[in-house]
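[step 3/7] inverse_fold.run input=structure_tokens len=471
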């Protein structure tokens, strides 16, 4: 029996199960053995490919990231001069997407539900064979890069290291409201956006991190503004000893405007919902809701300064989370008042009833949450309501999650809620002083994310100020 050919393989995928499937099938192919390396983000992929030129084949999930598609990742891989076969794998078939990916230089397009060792092996064999036949052309020409850029539905441009545009694709010209490509060639990239200082900071980040993903506000030829999902990549061609900037854009104006209207409606509904729940439950005050929102806002802003969270927490996340936190205890509306207002210690059975309020809260909000899709605000609401009593050491409820298993939003609200609960009057005890509350939280360090706990300990007097403002 002939020895199997070992292929150095990169899988760009955010689902661990899908990676495990590819590894399993890769060990059961007839002619090939896949030595699988795995990354999740575009940044990780580009860094890995720079360090590992021996990679022979790439598997790319079309939906690997919530903000960019596999098509954009493929464009940036090709622009970097990576000339190995790329096989796209997706959760569901779509002919339009398949055509776009093949035009952009993908070798094949496979659907996860139809995947098998036989299907995978055929795709690998065909891809390697096609590349072998075209190797001479691919080595001499920028065929793959041109395919990826010119056929893209995204607006794509290339700029030199001074920020002057050297190339734009047809979609970019149309997106910015111009008629011809030569109207944009030589133009400073900064003139196409509002807030030139934002672009300046972006380019500095690019020199350090090589990629940048985020939102920008574009300025069309007629001076109208529009919202963009932007992906920048620093391309360094070692053979030619040159560097340039590649950027791709998706116009998200309609999505942003619809999202703003929807979120304004949701926030209005939920603010009334939260206040009404407190009023009916008669357990806490509107002041409690406001304080939790302010504590949460403060913690999130401080966490944003920490490297671990800098790429995750932005202004929108902070605002969305502070609003979402107002709903944390909405499930108590369906908890009997005789239990919530009981002036003595609860029995074990009564305590079990109280512990149901996170699930009850999610049930109450289900008419709104069922349509959450990719809406960040509604996802935060769901996580906060359901998980704000989970604890870092696994001692919380309703699911006994621990550590990073608990969504960050719920970890933030958990500490804010504990502090406010300790410093508030209850039917069975008087409010503790600020100092007493701080001491208890200090002693219960293991129950909180250590970075969030540290933010509280280092800034606890700010919590006291917020409390006094919202009595």
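[step 3/7] decode complete -> sequence:
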């Amino acid at each position: 029996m002939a020895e199997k050919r070992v292929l150095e393989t990169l899988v760009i995928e955010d689902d661990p199960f899908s990676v495990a499937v590819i590894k399993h099938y890769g060990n059961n192919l007839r002619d090939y053995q896949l030595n699988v390396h795995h990354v999740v983000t575009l940044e990780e992929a580009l860094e890995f490919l720079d360090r590992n030129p021996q990679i022979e084949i790439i598997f790319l999930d079309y939906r690997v990231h919530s903000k960019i598609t596999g098509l954009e990742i493929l464009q940036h891989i090709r622009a970097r001069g990576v000339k190995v076969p790329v096989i796209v794998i997706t959760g569901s078939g779509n002919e339009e997407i398949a055509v776009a990916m093949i035009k952009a230089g993908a070798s094949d397009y496979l659907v996860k539900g139809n995947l098998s060792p036989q299907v995978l092996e055929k795709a690998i064999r065909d891809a390697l064979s096609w590349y072998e036949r075209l190797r001479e052309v691919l080595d001499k020409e920028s065929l793959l890069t041109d395919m990826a850029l010119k056929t893209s539905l995204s607006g794509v441009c290339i700029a030199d290291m001074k920020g002057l545009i050297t190339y734009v694709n047809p979609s970019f010209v149309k997106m910015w409201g111009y008629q011809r490509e030569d109207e944009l060639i030589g133009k400073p990239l900064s003139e196409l956006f509002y807030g030139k200082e934002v672009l300046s900071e972006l380019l500095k980040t690019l020199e350090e991190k090589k990629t940048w993903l985020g939102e920008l506000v574009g300025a069309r030829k007629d001076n109208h503004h529009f919202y963009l999902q932007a992906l920048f990549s620093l391309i360094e061609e070692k053979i030619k000893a040159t560097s340039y900037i590649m950027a791709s854009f998706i116009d998200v104006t309609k999505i942003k405007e619809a999202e703003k209207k929807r979120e304004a409606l949701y926030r209005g509904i939920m603010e009334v919902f939260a206040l009404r729940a407190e009023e009916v439950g008669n357990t806490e005050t509107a002041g409690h809701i406001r304080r939790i929102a302010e504590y949460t806002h403060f913690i999130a802003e401080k966490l944003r300064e920490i490297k671990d969270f800098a790429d995750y927490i932005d202004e929108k996340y902070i605002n969305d989370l502070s609003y979402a936190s107002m709903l944390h205890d909405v499930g108590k509306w369906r908890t009997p008042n005789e239990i919530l207002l009981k002036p003595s210690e609860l029995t074990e059975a009564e305590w079990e009833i109280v512990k149901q309020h996170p699930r009850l809260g999610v049930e109450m909000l289900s008419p709104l949450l069922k349509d959450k899709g990719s809406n960040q605000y509604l996802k935060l609401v769901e996580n906060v309501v359901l998980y704000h009593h989970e604890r870092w050491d696994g001692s919380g409820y309703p699911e006994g999650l621990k550590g990073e298993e608990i969504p960050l939003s719920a970890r933030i609200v958990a500490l804010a809620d504990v502090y406010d609960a300790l410093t508030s009057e209850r039917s069975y005890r008087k409010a503790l002083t600020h100092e007493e509350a701080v001491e208890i939280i200090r002693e219960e360090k293991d129950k909180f994310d250590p970075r969030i706990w540290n933010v509280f300990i280092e800034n606890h007097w700010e919590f006291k100020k917020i409390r006094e403002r919202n009595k």
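[step 4/7] annotate
The chain has three domains: 5-147, 154-251, 254-469.
The domain at 5-147 is CATH 3.40.50.2300 (Rossmann fold).
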